[in-house]
Prior knowledge:
Chain A is built from 10 helices and no strands. By secondary structure, chain A is mainly α. Chain A is globular and about 55 Å long. Chain B contains 8 helices and 10 strands. In chain B, strand 7, helix 6 and strand 8 (185-190) form a beta-alpha-beta unit. The longest helix of chain B has 16 residues, at 166-181. Chain B is globular and about 55 Å long.
Amino acid sequence: MSPRLTLATARRVLLQLRADHRTLVLMIAVPCVLLGLLAWIFNGTPVFDSVGAPFLGVFPFVVMFVITSVATLRERSSGTLERLLSTPLGKGDFLGGYALAFGALAVVQALVATGFAIWVCGLDVAGPRWLLVVVAVTDAVLGTATGLFVSAFARTEFQAVQFMPAFVLPQFLLCGLLLPRDMLPRALELVSDFLPLSYAVDAMRTLTTQVDAAADVGRDVVIVAAFVVAAIAAGSLTLRRRTP
Amino acid sequence: MADDQTAAVVVDGLRVFRGSREVLPGISLTVPRGQVVGLLGPNGGGKTTLLRSIVGVQIIAGGTVTVLGEPAGSPGLRSRVGYVTQDASVYSDLTVRANLTYFAALAGAPRADVERVIEVVDLTTDVDTRVDRLSGGQRSRVSLAAALIGSPELLVLDEPTVGLDPVLRRDLWALFRRLAGEGTTLLVSSHVMDEAARCDRLLLLREGRLLADDSPDGLLARTGAPDAEQAFFALIETEGAA
């Protein structure tokens, strides 16, 4: 990998996104609209304070997953990926460039969504607010990294879109939002131990209830970050310079 | 091998399957340095597969492909070989300059090279236009410009003149001649036979087999045909009779 080529790729992806205003608006606005809807549903009850933070982790994850998986597929079908892989650009540079560019957007998205949840929806958590931002950003980057990984297995746009329910919804069901993970049937609890979104939601739940949350949340964030690195490494293994 | 010193590309016994179909059943050929070599033949004859093998993005079943003295696809070749795919493979949502600036960064070429190639392909008035607002001919010139960045020693061009008007085609062939004069080797595929006369050497490919590897004059003399198209038909008939 070369930092120069990775940064050049990140810059190019950001330039492409800047040209697509509608996508930018959707990326920033959709998590806020969903959080607002959630707060409204539970208006007048204490429920939003307990589920608001976990959802703040889930929404950016889903949005970034979908956008990233489609973006890299577009690169594949337009023939630009084949051209790139015949240049000195490394596979790690390609994925790293995408991860950096979408990661930068994820930071903006998570900052806006967290601000919206706190100041507009009145989300109140026990732990420090800056940690809320850290976890939300990590979750959004996790969405980017898994999106990059699964896009290697999609040959068409239809397949890429199907990966959302196939890859994201099972994690959503098992991550502890519907039922705390320790109350799941034993087999499912074990499965959920291997799913990254479980740790993302665990971190948010800890933040919701504990004032002194930094140590526990830090451990969860490190685990999620490890999944990010693993997804990008696995993604670069599935990219092939030579194709049939 | 003395051949490797003088030849830009040496293909020996290359076999390629796409799906269960054997597209190239063991083909051997040589592309000399500093020449414009035309790869001609009907669609579906294996031209793109051969070019992809030379660039090193095709999975091959057997044989060897040596490019500029190294095995095709070697990391060292990636900045020495320029490849233009059949469809313009550039970013349609970026401007011409943004596209070329990115490819210059990948090739490690100086920024001045961007301005140079823009002039070479005659896109100076459209540099700040998004590629998806350009005509098809302009788009394929952007794709060509991206391959010219860094002045690679070998240019592999897959049907670069398809869909272009006659004036533009003439200009592009003049450009190819000029590049060859400066020492660049060009391997250009086409299914338009009248482009054959503009090449130094011709490779006629049909159903994965090489019907001819000759100079345009040599081909005409051998077949007694008035032009490349007639020569091609004559070769098909000879092969059918044999």
